[in-house]
TrEMBL record:
Family (UniProt): Belongs to the glycosyl hydrolase 13 family.
SUPFAM superfamilies noted in UniProt: (Trans)glycosidases, Glycosyl hydrolase domain
InterPro entries for the chain: GH (IPR017853), GH13_cat_dom (IPR006047), Glyco_hydro_b (IPR013780), O16G_dom_2 (IPR045857)
UniProt-recorded name of the protein: Alpha-glucosidase
Domain Glycosyl hydrolase family 13 catalytic as annotated: residue spans: 16-416
Entry's EC annotation: 3.2.1.-
């Protein structure tokens, strides 16, 4: 990527909060908005610029808030609108912006729009995707992202409705202008309350092919070719940006399943989103034989995906992440729990030295790991539970234990266990019974303990954020791969994009659990070198000689020369 846009949106570091699991203020076992407000100093001290708050709207909580029943109300378990306003003000007082999570692809089936739509009341009749027909024959073979058919029959309306996620989350009918107008009015309502932007959930699913044709049964998901970045998607996203966000100093972040770098370029440069999330790097350990298939990944896979996205997006922009509320913890997935601190900080260095906007998911800055769920009853994620129960019902598996290891690896609940604040009961998250299991390792891994250790993962994240703020090359420099064929070390250079700075950054990342010696190519190592940041004490400032990298060591050098 290359860019002349150096707005706060691109230079920011974003901290993602999953409110249900962050901090509980009232002892009911569920995180809430007042609990977040009590922790704003922790967030500000980390050094981040923006908080992305996952949904807190009124919701029956089928999918923990991504099923919205009232866009203009706060869910009672999370607090009130007054509580939300206090959080907004507390963040703004500390120069931290607040971004809301917004779902405009679907609503809850308890939303008033859907209730009126199933009764065919006036304009609401066409607010969702309805197809008349026999209750014994679905409109097509499309599958839900959560598994199973993407169509459910409604006895009241005597018609089928489309839901690309849970059956209680019907998809909005974006071809209907009245739907779009209602959404723009709602967005305006929130912007008037002083928020700083939106993360737009599954934004490239808004457009479905006219006529709902049959999907390729060999594709994953079935029907995806007709609703992933569908035929009118750029028309819809462009209009959304023009109508809701143009002329405002806010950020728009698109979650975009299965997009290519060319898609990302178009969403940002042509349609006007500020950035999108790529997903390709989240698939390097996914096999092709079902939702629980896990394959060993090679460093070459990560290198190839990284280079493709760093060089092919052009003037576009991406969000950088290795975990979020839908993905496993990065130490357990891409690192090594036996070298938790080392691999957590090495992966953080990777994240913060690429072109894009880094996103830190709560607990990532502590090096939190995946928990060990011992039974299906301990899971809370509907996508996990529904898929397993369906596999049991259809006879694909006879016992949960047959796939328990893979489910433990993939489940979204890995990232949703409570934030580990201290070694107090329930990790200091709640005085009550937590809504989901607390990771057993909280006495060793918690914010209180990490804050007291100058060499902790938390301390390193704080250093990294300061480093990124002080070195624009880490944000905007051009990406050049080094040691492309090395199987253990990921190395690259960030170089000037023509602004007169002749310095370069050289990044060395050891992905192995052993000492590895590397020689940096002479053209990348020539000049005065200085070690700017690393996750081990010590280390030479020189790159002219072979560099011995300790297990999961990360080093970032500045190389000053006359090259431009």
């Amino acid at each position: 990527m290359t860019t002349t846009d150096r707005s706060w949106r691109r230079g920011a570091v974003v901290y993602q909060i999953y409110p249900r699991s962050f901090a509980d203020s009232d002892g009911d076992g569920v995180g809430d908005i007042p609990g977040i407000t009590e922790r704003v100093d922790y967030i500000a001290d980390l050094g981040v610029d923006v908080v992305w708050l996952c949904p807190v709207y009124e919701s029956p909580q089928v999918d923990n808030g991504y099923d919205i029943s009232d866009y203009r109300s706060i869910h009672g378990e999370y607090g009130t609108l007054a509580d939300w306003e206090r959080l907004r003000d507390a963040l703004h007082e500390r120069d931290v912006r607040l971004v809301m999570d917004l779902v405009v692809n679907h609503t809850s089936d308890e939303h008033e729009w859907f209730r009126r739509s199933r009764r065919e009341e006036g304009e609401y009749a066409d607010y969702y995707h309805w197809v008349e027909g026999s209750p014994d024959e679905r409109p097509n073979n499309w599958e839900s992202m959560f598994g199973g058919p993407a169509w459910s029959y409604d006895d009241e309306r005597e018609a089928w409705y489309l839901h690309l996620f849970d059956e209680r989350m019907p998809d909005l009918n974006w071809p209907n202008p009245a739907v779009r107008e209602s959404l723009y009015e709602m967005i305006e309502w929130w912007l008037e309350r002083g928020i700083d932007g939106f993360r737009l959930d599954v934004i490239n699913l808004l457009s479905k092919a006219e006529g709902y044709p049959e999907g390729d049964p060999t594709a994953d998901p079935v029907g995806g070719e007709y609703f992933l970045t569908g035929p009118r998607i750029h028309e819809y996203v462009g209009e959304l940006v023009d109508r809701a966000f143009a002329g405002r100093d806010v950020v728009t972040i698109g979650e975009t399943f299965d997009v290519t770098p060319a898609d990302a370029h178009r969403f940002v440069v042509e349609d006007g989103l500020d950035m999108v999330f790529p997903f390709e790097h989240m698939d390097i350990d996914a096999g092709g034989s079902g939702p629980w298939d896990v394959v060993d990944w090679e460093l070459a896979d990560l290198k190839a995906v990284t280079e493709r996205w760093q060089t092919a997006v052009g003037e576009g922009w991406i969000g950088l992440y290795l975990t979020n509320h839908d993905q496993p913890r990065i130490v357990s997935r891409f690192g090594d729990e036996a070298y938790r601190r080392e691999s957590a900080t090495m992966l953080a260095t990777y994240l913060f030295t690429l072109c894009g906007t880094p996103f830190v998911y709560q607990g990532q800055e502590l090096g939190m790991t995946n928990p060990d769920f011992e039974s299906l009853e301990q899971y809370r994620d509907p996508a996990t539970v529904d898929r397993v129960q369906r596999a049991l019902a259809t006879g694909d598996i006879e016992l949960f234990e047959e796939i328990s290891e893979a489910v433990n690896y993939w489940s979204r609940d890995n990232a949703r266990t409570p934030m580990q604040w201290s070694d107090d009961e329930h990790a200091g998250f709640t005085a009550g019974e937590p809504w989901i299991k607390v990771n057993d390792n909280y006495p060793e891994i918690n914010a209180e303990r990490e804050a007291a250790d100058d060499e902790s993962v938390l301390a390193y994240y704080r250093r990294l954020i300061r480093f990124r703020n002080e070195h624009p090359l880490a944000v905007y420099g051009a990406y050049e791969p080094l040691l492309a064929d090395h199987s253990q070390v990921f190395a690259y250079r960030r170089t000037s994009d023509g602004d007169g700075d002749s310095d370069a950054l050289v990044v060395l990342l050891n992905f192995a659990d052993e000492v590895v010696s590397v020689e940096v190519p002479p053209d990348a190592a020539s000049g005065d070198t200085e070690l700017l940041i690393g996750n081990y004490e010590g280390g030479s400032d020189g790159l002219a000689e072979p560099v011995d990298l300790r297990p999961y060591e990360a080093r970032v050098y500045r190389v000053s020369s006359d090259r431009t």
